[in-house]
Write a structure and sequence with these properties.
The chain contains no helices and four strands.
Length: 161
């Protein structure tokens, strides 16, 4: 079985295995371009991890520590990030369509250019977060009083299949 070059025993291409990873430490791990679709990272430490261009569709990061994590261009469609700590995380150009970010800490996070169409964005702390060019639509659930246009977000309504 292949293993990632992170010194961990997580199989590469774990997609479809319904893998649950509990309480693991991936601090500063290089996971760029890996396929973790559908994987459950529960209460994991992913601080400083590099998940750029990774396939994280349907992955579960509930209550995960993702501080300073880079997920640029990551595919997070339908992912669950409930209660995740994304403080200073970089999610630029990430696909977060239909993702659930309820209660996520986005302090100083960068979601510039991210696609948030259909996402549940009932975030916790968004102090100093950046949303310039992020897309949202009529199905995106935003916090009461949040003004997307004032944050530089772009409304992009398109028929959904």
């Amino acid at each position: 079985m292949d293993t990632l070059a992170t010194g961990t025993d997580v199989p590469a291409g774990a997609a479809g295995d319904a893998l649950r990873i509990e309480g693991r430490d991936f601090h500063d791990a290089d996971l760029r371009g890996q396929d973790f679709s559908g994987v459950r990272f529960h209460h994991c430490e992913l601080r400083g991890a590099r998940l750029d261009w990774a396939n994280l569709a349907g992955a579960c990061f509930n209550h995960a520590r993702l501080l300073n994590t880079s997920m640029t261009h990551a595919h997070l469609r339908g992912a669950s990030l409930k209660g995740a700590n994304l403080r200073s995380a970089k999610l630029t150009q990430a696909n977060l369509v239909d993702a659930d970010m309820t209660g996520a800490n986005l302090w100083q996070a960068d979601l510039s250019g991210a696609n948030l169409c259909g996402a549940t964005c009932l975030w916790g702390d968004i102090t100093k977060a950046r949303f310039a060019g992020a897309l949202y639509d009529n199905a995106t659930r935003l916090p009461p009083g949040f003004r997307p246009e004032a944050e530089g977000m772009i409304r992009f309504d398109m028929p959904r299949a």
